[in-house]
Input
Amino acid sequence: MDSKRRRDSLLFGTLLLLTLTRPAHAYVDFGTGSMIMQMSVAAFLGFVYVMKRFWASIANAFLAVRQRLFGRRGSTEKENSGM
Amino acid sequence: MACDPRLASRVASSFRDPSGFVFKDQGVLYRQVNRCYEEAFRVLDESGLYNSLVSEGLLIPHVQVPVENGMDDQAVAVLRPEPISFISYPYEWCFSQLRDAALLTLDIQLRSLDHGMSLKDASAYNVQFHEGRPVFIDTLSFDIYREGRPWVGYRQFCEHFLAPLALMSFVDPLASRMMSVYIDGIPLTMASKMLPGRTRANLGLLIHLHLHAKTQSRVAKTVASAPQSGMSKTALKGLIDNLRSTVAGLRYSPTGTVWADYIDETNYTSEAQKHKEQLVSEFIDGINPKPEVVWDLGANTGVYSRIASSKEIRTIAWDKDPAAVEKSYLATRAAPDPFLLPLIQDLTNPSPSLGWAGCERDSLAGRGRADAVMALALVHHLAIGNNVPFGDIAAYFSSLGEWLVVEFVPKEDTQVQRLLHSRDLDYLCYDQDTFEQDFSERFDLVRKEPIRETSRVLYLYRGRRT
Output
């Protein structure tokens, strides 16, 4: 249990050191923890976003070809956000 | 507490952002742009972001008036935004209203990044419901995007939107009322503790809420400054996109509460229902001059509110039940009605003045009066359910509007019998004569009609001029 806690603290400390730079300026309290949180997941969520866009472009290309061949109206995925 | 009259010109809630502020001059609302925001304001226009957002109805439009209209020498521009008919607050919104406001904020942030800008805050108070849809009202929330910089509004977004939405979705739809206690957002550590363990299986909630809360707690014990760079624009868009998917994926089904199913469980025949609708319509038509604003108190899912809004009268459908308001809002969204705004309000404990100096967020009474108030099948809930005497109910209604359409439900009615199930009627002066006598002290009777096939009576009253 102690070694697990020590390992967690070490990982967290390393992450903290990696991300610490100059202070940001904003009128809202952005929260240091919140900034670190964003940096921690940035690479992962960026990768997911790129992959999502990639598959969306493949799907769009497929729909465009289908529309050209069969004259059917295709549509891209649209989230039901109600907006 | 009376609000400081020195704050009369500047809107009391407009003090946080040094970029500018909102003020009122002779009843007209203006927004002053301060010198320190000059560059960002120029980029907002030149980048095409302002036109892009306004053309799609995402941002409130404004006209620029001469800078001499500013309140002090810091002014570099003065804007007159399109007026919002009624300012509502997140603690008065149902689940889907808060979710739509959240999605609007994220969509605007994504659009801003494409134009070289970024939202510098993500307050739920930046969104209002205007002509039936959410619209962003803070024109000064846009900052110039600095490459590599994380989103400074991330924490605020999670506290103002994600935490209350998750609590409303997984714990209780009334969790939005917590926003009236935590007016700057629900602390993530608290939300994380309150949410059930299964929410950790939701990747978005795990990252943005649970791990976020944990990181905040850990950092709070250290003295550290925040990172200012190192996050690519793609990663930032990934973060916003993931927040969007998480928010869009949250669900709430408005069933199971007493009020959401109330209309279906009333003892009206279809003839009685039709006659009541006809009378309500005639009574509204009988108000002279035609009302501009109607408040339907205890509106439930807004069946009768729609009679008023269909006459192009701005109507607010108030109800205490979040499920009923949710149903009403979803119906309004499905068949857009620019004149109807459903909101949550508990009349036995109406929204008070809140925030800094008790003036930052207006009370219900502080946000103006209606021209006409409707209180249909409501009085018995206040009189019996909350023990409010008829005279006090009449006094409160008269403080809200000049005209009143009110329904009296006698004690023989099954709905009243339900309320009396565990009460002793003997000590309650609940009868039609007392009702009419007490209401006549505040109002003049204009019209009175029994509703067919029921023992209920509908009254049209006009407030007595004193």
Chain B has three domains: 5-81, 90-249, 262-463. The longest helix of chain B spans residues 95-114.
